[in-house]
Amino acid sequence: MRLALLLLLACGEDVEKKNTRGTGGGGTTTETEPLTIDTASCGACRGDVLVSSAEGIGVLSGCRRVEGNVTISADPELENLDALGCLTTVVGELAIDGNTGLVDITGLSSLDSVTSLYIANNRNLVHLDGLQELVQVTDSLRLVDNATLIDTSALSNVNYVGNFLGIESNAALVTLGGFERLVLANWVRITDNGSLESLEGLSNLGFVMGDLAIEGNDALADLSGLRTLSEIDFNFTIRNNRRMFELSGLDSLARIGGTLTVEDMGGLVNIRPMPSVEQIDGGLIIGQNPFLSLIEPSPLLTAAGDVLWLEDNLSLPDLAGISLIRTVDGSVRVTGNSELTDVSGLSAMRIVGGDLRIANNGSLCQADAEAIAEKIGVEGEILVTMNDGKCD
């Protein structure tokens, strides 16, 4: 389909227009046409636009509303977005990507609504000042690989992200200030932000209607910034946050519709109770946490959904943390926990809808493992093997 940028008023500058990726990736054809703009007026523009030079951005100076995707990309000379002072609305994606000289986006100070906002690979962008008027992002908001970004507080008026919130690979980002008005989100990924110490900016987030992933944030100490979070409709993944020694701060969480995974946490020692959680529909996976030595039971959690797996937690001595769980719809695995000596935490379990495996726990007495397995109603196969610890 031929792309056209229709401007209401006129004067004459070239711009490259491209069918860009939007939120889904990869563009197709590119066409160039002369455009006419009356820079004294703010009008409506239609069509996808790719701007790849500091001179070319002027073609958008007369646009108040753009119905299409706007990509400002790969320009080492572009230092600011002052030419966009008219812009209030983008019905499409606004992508600011790979502009190595960009230090100032205050030219977006009139922007209040956008379908998707993608700010990525702008290595000298320190703050997001200029986005203070932005209120609604109807699809996705992503901040990705902005190496010197330390401040997101300019997003303080955003109260709605309709689909996906991604804060990913921003090496200098310390906090998530600016998201305090966000109460509900669909899919949330906070990943690989090496300096991120706190999730405090998400302190009013109550509902996640899709997945929530907190992964690879090496400086993150706890999850207390999620203290008002009460429901996650799909999966909750906590992985590879190396300086989180205690998993805590989830006091309001009552329901997880998918699987709770706590995995590859290099410094994790203690999993504190989640006092409000009653339901984990997809199950619980706790694995590859080499220093985890204490799991405290969540008092209201008596069923673990589809799976209950505790695997390769090399310092875990017992299963007290799951001692209140009575039913698991799917499989139970207790494997590769080399310091495990006590499986009495399984004594309350009555029904396992799938397989039961207790295996390769080097300090566990085989006879003790067999005795506990015999007391559980298992609908699938039972495998109790290679538990090589001494028996009293």
The total count of strands amounts to: 31
Shape: elongated
The span between the termini is 77 Å
Radius of gyration: 26 Å
Structural notes for this entry:
The protein is an all-beta fold and 392 residues long. The protein has a domain of 89 residues. Helix content is 2%, strand content 32%. The protein contains one helix and 31 strands. The strands form four sheets. It has a 23-stranded mixed β-sheet that branches. The N terminus is likely disordered.
Chain-wise SSE layout:
Elements: E1 6-7, E2 13-18, E3 30-35, E4 43-46, E5 49-51, E6 63-67, E7 70-73, E8 89-97, E9 113-120, E10 136-137, E11 140-144, E12 160-168, E13 184-191, E14 207-208, E15 212-215, E16 231-232, E17 236-239, E18 246-247, E19 255-256, E20 259-263, E21 270-271, E22 279-280, E23 283-287, E24 294-295, E25 307-311, E26 327-328, E27 331-335, E28 351-352, E29 356-359, H1 366-374, E30 377-378, E31 382-385
Parallel strand pairs: 4-6, 5-7, 6-8, 7-8, 8-9, 9-10, 9-11, 10-12, 11-12, 12-13, 13-14, 13-15, 14-16, 15-17, 16-19, 17-20, 18-21, 19-22, 20-23, 21-24, 23-25, 25-27, 26-28, 27-29, 28-30, 29-31
Antiparallel strand pairs: 1-4, 2-3
